[in-house]
Each structure stands twice: as C-alpha cells, then as structure tokens.
Amino acid sequence: MKFGKIAAFLAAAALCFGATGASAADSGNQPVKIGVYLPLTGQNAFGGQLELDGIKLAHKEMPTVLDRPVELVVVDNKSDKVEAANAVKRLIERDKVSAFIGTYGSALAMAGAEVAEKAKVPGIGTSCTNPLVTQGKEFYFRGCFIDPYQADAIATYVIDNLGMKKAAVLMDMTNDYAVGLSKYFTDAFTKRGGEVVANLKYSSGDQDFTAQLTELKNKDPEIVFMPAYFAEGAIIMRQAKELGAKFRLMGADAMDNPDTLTLGGDAAEGFLHSTFPYDQNMANLSEEAKRFTEAWKAAFPDKDPNANALLGYNCYLVILNAIQRAGSDDPQAIAKALAETMDLPTALGKLTINKTHDAEMPVGIIEYKDGKRVYVGEVTPS
Amino acid sequence: MGFEMFLQHCFNALTLGSLYALIAIGYTMVYGILRLINFAHGDILMVGAYFIFFGTFAFGWPWGVAAILSILAAGLLGVLIDRVAYRPLRDAPRISALISAIAMSFFIESVAVVVFTGQPRPVQQPAWLTNAWQFGDLRVTHLAAFVPGITIILVCLLLYIVYRTKPGLAMRAISKDIETTRLLGVKVDNIIALTFGLGSALAAAAGIMWALRYPQVHPYMGVMPGLKAFIAAVFGGIGSIEGAVLGGLVIGFVEIMAVAFMPELSSYRDAFAFLILVLVLLVKPTGLLGEKIEEKI
User: Fold this and answer.
1) Are residues A72 and A168 in the same domain?
2) Predicted-assembly ipTM surpassing the 0.90 threshold
3) What range defines the domain where residue B247 resides?
4) How many distinct structural domains can be found in chain B?
5) For the whole model, what pTM was predicted?
6) Residues of chain A under the 50 pLDDT cut
7) What 3-state DSSP class applies to A28?
8) What share of chain A is helix, strand, coil (3-state, %, to 5)?
9) What is the pLDDT of residue B261?
10) Nearest to B139 among A40, A207, A243 (CB)
11) pLDDT (0 to 100) of residue A1
12) Hey, is the C-beta of B65 within 8 angstroms of any chain A C-beta?
C-alpha cells in the first residue's frame, strides 16, 4: 500500500510540475468532471469492469488536476448501442462533463462518438479498435491501435510464425468490430499469400455454433480466425472440441480476459489471440508497466492486471495530461490538447495520438499452453 | 456434403431442437390453460441455470441432487410469480396480464443482474457428458444424446399428468371454460398455481440442459432461447404440447440445416426460421397442430 501512495504522490507531483503554473486556481475548488461510459452489464461487462477498475486506480493515484479535484461520473452503457448513445448524452447534458472516457467495444463507441461530436465534447475510447470509430471525428480519440493494423499483425503471425496458409473466418455479423476485423484479416491474409477458404457467420446472442463448426470441419482449414468476445469465444472453443475439430482457433483483443481460460477450460488449450502489448509476465516489462503492475496488485490483490485495465488507466492519464496542457476544463481546449498528445510516457510505451486520432503500438500475441496463458511476444507487421 | 457430415448436422439439430421443444412446452402449457403468454418463462430458465451453477459450484452438491433441487426451487418460484403478478389480474383484460408478464420478465432479469452481476460464469460439465462416441468423422457427445432423451422422458411425464390424472383433468377443464370449472367445485387457483409450478419446473430443466450444452450462465441467457421457443410454440400450435415439441424440433432443424446447406448465408439462419413461421401461419393461422378456438362473445 505504501508503495502505491508514494508512486501516486510522485505521479501527481510530476503532473503538477509539468503544468503551466497555477493559472486555473481562480475557479476555486470546483471539481473537474470526467465522464466514464462503459459496459458494466450485458455481453461486454467483463471488459468494461476491468477498464473501470483501471480508470479508478488512475483516479486514486492522480485525484487532482489544475489544483482542482477530479470527479469521475460513471455511467453503464449496458453493452447496447442505444444505451451507449444515451449514456454519452447524459454525461454531456446532465452531468456537464469536460471530457469523457470510453468505451470498450467499437459498436458502442461509434454510437457514443456521434453524440460527442455534435455536442463538441471530447471523448477517448479505451479499447475500441474499429477505424470507423474516430473516422472524420474532431472530438473522438482512442488510446489503442486500430483493426487493420491488428489484423495485419495476426495475418503476419499466422503465416510467418505458425507457417499456416489455409485459414477460415467465423464472425458475428451483427457486430461492427467483428465484421471489420474479419474483412481486414481476409485482406491481409490474402495479400500475404494465404488463402481464406470459408467465411461463416452468426448473430450476437447465438449460443449454438455446431452447424458453422461442422461446416468448417468440412472445409478443413489449418486455423480459424474468430474475432469474438471472450464469453461466446469460449463457447465456440468448447463446441469445436466437442465436435473433434482439428483446426486451431485464433481470436483478437476482445478475447483478452482472465476468464477466457476459466470459461474455455481444457478447450482453451492451443488457443491464440492478439492483444495490446502488455502482460504482467512479459519479458521486457518497462518501468511504467512495472509500476502499473505493482499499483494494481496493491489495489486488487485477488485479480490479475490485464491490458484492458491498463488501457482504462492510460486513457485517464491521457485526458489528465491534456487538461493540464490546455490549462482549463473547457471541452474544446481539451480536445485540441488531446490531438497534440505526444510521447506521453505510459505502461504501453510512449503514447502519441496520430492524425487519425489513434494511439500506435505493437500487437501482442497470447497463447494458451498447458492450461496457462503465455505472452508469446510482439508482432509489428511490415 | 458427405453422409457423415449430414448425420452430424442432424444430431446437432436434434439436440438444439429438443432444447427448444422443452422450453416451448412450458409456454404452451400456461397458454393452453390461461391464454396467457408467460414472457417470464425464459427468465425462469435462467434462474434454474443459476441454481444449478450455485448448487454444483458454490455448494459442491452432486449433479443429480443439484438438478432436482434446482427444478423444485424454480417450480416454487413459478407458483410465487403467479401469486404475485398474475393471480390479482385473473379477471382483468387479458392484455393487462400480458403486460404484467413482460414486467415480470424485466424484473427477474434486473434482479439477476444485481444479485449475480452481469458477468458470465462457467458451468462445469461432468466428464461423462462431454465424452463422445466417434464413428469416422461423426462425433456425438453423450450430452448431445442425453438432451433429447431427457426431453422425451419429461414430455411423456407431462402428457401423463395432463391426460391421466385428476389435476390434469382439471387443467383441461379450465382451458375449456374457467367459470364452469369453478362452479363445479374445482379449486381453480390451486390448479393454475400447479400449472405454473410445472411449467417453471420444465423451464428449469431446460435451463439446466442449456447450461450443460452451452456451459455458461448469465442474466440474459434466457432471452433468446425463450424467444425462439415461443416461436416454436406458436409454430406448432400454441396450447398443444405435441405441437410445441414438433415446433421446437422444426425450428432447431431449420436453423442448423440453413447453415449446413447454405453456409454463405449462415448469417440469415434466424431469418429462415422466421420466414417459415410466417408461411405456416399464413396457411394455417392456428399453427401446425393447433385447434381452432371459437371466440367467446
């Protein structure tokens, strides 16, 4: 606990010294309001909860900005697109937040981004990786990489490292994230000399995948790419095993969850997925990543830190830094400062917001081996 | 498509269809007697699945014990729901009871989110169910065969109760004319409570089976199966137990075979199921095995 407090103090101090002085002290002790909209219930609740924990941890470490306390206003978007739009509307209109963080899930982020854009209040997405989320948006940003890049990294890994050239795709066609990622994977995989032999679909909420998996068995690919969320991903793994499928399964960042292993059980053996370049057991853990890991373990001794938690943590860091540089809690000034974020030291490396409002970073690969989750390494597609 | 693969699809469809059938029977029973569509049915399925999760996982009871207790508890819950949400509305217009049913469904879901949290939890499948028989490329897990078996047993049991016992006779009488039945000295409220108890117990049995087959529980797990089973019940002729079984099997087969024969259209499998429903209802508005109901004036 002591370590956490010292670290928090140092971090807060560092932020204060980096500031432009005490110019904002005149607004008294009015809190700076930062909204958070995440899926805390429904299909994406696990990811949302982890990111919220990360944000709260960062808030505990850095509770003030411009000498004013920061107040977090948390709203549940219930893993639902309509609720997501309503949540952002509520944050902006009722709670009058200066900026907001969220969300997990590209489909949800797109719904929220539209509202934010109209109201001219900046938001930063935690782990929404579909490029459309920030496309043409002046007020929406994200703290993670985008899917064409992630898909290219997956294709590279499958062809170069696994030596497989015959793939298939199984996707949720009602989910923007899955549809986008499947398309980018197919493009990248074909471009790199592989062949995609089948593209099968299902709808959100489906729990029976036996028909699709039987069909996939028939097509006999070496690997099946399934950009699913971990809960349904785990069901797919189990059903594939029950049907005696011989192909391997690979997912993307939405499979990154401590419970992928719990839910998948022995069917998770050999499963692969891409993720953000952080794992507490990775070989080249940076100073910032080490500090985050320690702070997390002090705050949540019975939960392992994961990349989503870190993305939540990071987004808070990025927003606070932008408010600091903007010198005010005016939404438009914060948006301008966010766009200029450059080389901010974080646990995911030096973070820069690029022209399309994305953060660039390499793609990590996870494999489940002998009942354990192993961080294999990073892929940077050329 | 090879023959083995076709058989594989058939087995998949049989398992899924049996699950739908089992859920559909509960809908159809309550409807047959009260002319009430119990929208909370899918949510009772979810509660039943949670009971088995807690029974086996948290308390470490053996599967059989946990399953029986879970079914009994869900049956009691059904009786309670009837007492609280439907009985006071027995003489109100039918639409009021329907709205009450929808409210009950949301209420149970919301309580489940608060009590169990929205996080999905893994259900442990006993090893004897996940083992499989392998014939060449055809692979059938014991569970896939177990589910239709249980459905057959439960349907037979239910048919026996409805057609061969005194309370069953009363149920059928109520479904024809509730007022006359009451005048004849039948304790109508008790019989209706029993109907809800039986229907809910069936939902819980289906929930347990569902949780074994798709080994996760979460508060909204009952919504989609409930909806599909409702369609199955309407499809087979709502009010008819045999129709519900038939409807469930048909929906299961259509869903699986749509993907099997038209893999490139796999995303439209629900559309196929609904399309067939519309066509059947256009030709036969009372469903496949539904009886014609004369409007009472």
Assistant:
1) no
2) no
3) 3-120+147-283
4) 1
5) 0.81
6) 1-2, 13-25
7) coil
8) 45, 20, 35
9) 87
10) A243
11) 45
12) no
Question: A129 with A219, same domain?
Answer: no
pLDDT for residue B250: 92
Q: How far are the Cα atoms of A32, A71, A341, A368 from residue A68, in angstroms, in the given order?
A: 7, 9, 22, 45
Q: Would you call B134 and A205 a contact, using CB atoms and an 8 Å cutoff? A: no
Interface with B, mutate which of A218, A229, A260 (most B CBs under 10 A): A218
B220/A contact by beta carbon, under 8 A: yes
pLDDT mean over B144-173? 92
Q: Which of A173, A208, A216 to mutate to test the interface with B (most CBs of B within 10 A)?
A: A208
Residue A183 sits in a domain whose CATH number is: 3.40.50.2300
* Same domain as A286, residue A265: no
Residue keyed to tokens 């809910």: B200
The pair of structure tokens assigned to A13 is 């101090």
- Within an 8 Å CB–CB cutoff, is residue B149 touching chain A? no
Of A251, A268, A252, A250, the C-alpha closest to A260 is A268
Same domain, A158 and A74: no
**Which residue of B lies nearest to A206 if distances are taken between CA atoms?**
B224
Same domain, A88 and A122: yes
* Residue A151 covered by a domain: yes
Put simply, whether B115 touches A (Cβ < 8 Å) is: no
Provide mean pLDDT across the span B248-277: 85
Q: Write the DSSP string, chain B.
A: --HHHHHHHHHHHHHHHHHHHHHHHHHHHHHHHHS---TTHHHHHHHHHHHHHIIIIIS---HHHHHHHHHHHHHHHHHHHIIIIIGGGTTS-HHHHHHHHHHHHHHHHHHHHHHH-S--EEPPPPHHHH-EEEETTEEEEHHHHHHHHHHHHHHHHHHHHHHHSHHHHHHHHHHH-HHHHHHTT--HHHHHHHHHHHHHHHHHHHHHHHHHHS-EE-TTTTHHHHHHHHHHHHHH-TT-HHHHHHHHHHHHHHHHHHHHH-GGGGGGHHHHHHHHHHHHHHH-TT-SSPPP-PPP-
| Residue A368 and residue A246 share a domain | yes
How much is the pLDDT for A25? 46
**Angstroms from B1 CA to nearest CA on chain A:** 8
**A357 in a structural domain:** no
Does the distance separating the beta carbons of B264 and A214 come in below 8 Å? no
Boundaries of domain holding A90: 2-145+282-351
- The reply to whether A173 and A50 lie within a common domain is no
Asked whether residue B291 is domain-assigned, the answer is: no
| Res B4: pLDDT | 84
CATH of the domain at B247: 1.10.3470
Contact B120 A231 (CB under 8 A): yes
> Which positions in chain A touch B144 (Cβ < 8 Å)?
242
Q: Please state, as a whole number, how many other Cβ atoms lie within 10 Å of the Cβ of residue B291.
A: 12
Tell me what percent of the residues of chain B surpass a pLDDT of 70.
97
Calpha distance A334→A122 (Å, rounded): 7
| Nearest CA-CA distance, residue B134 and chain A, Å | 9
Strand (E) or helix (H) holding A41: none
Residue A358: inside a domain = no
Distance CA B45, CA B118 (A): 16
What tens digit of pLDDT does each residue of B225-239 get? Answer: 998 899 899 889 888
Domain presence at residue B270? yes
Domain assignment of residue B130, yes or no: no
Give the lowest-confidence range in A8-22, B88-102, B122-136, B195-209.
A8-22
- Mean pLDDT value across chain A: 89
Based on the structure, what is the number of domains in chain A? 2
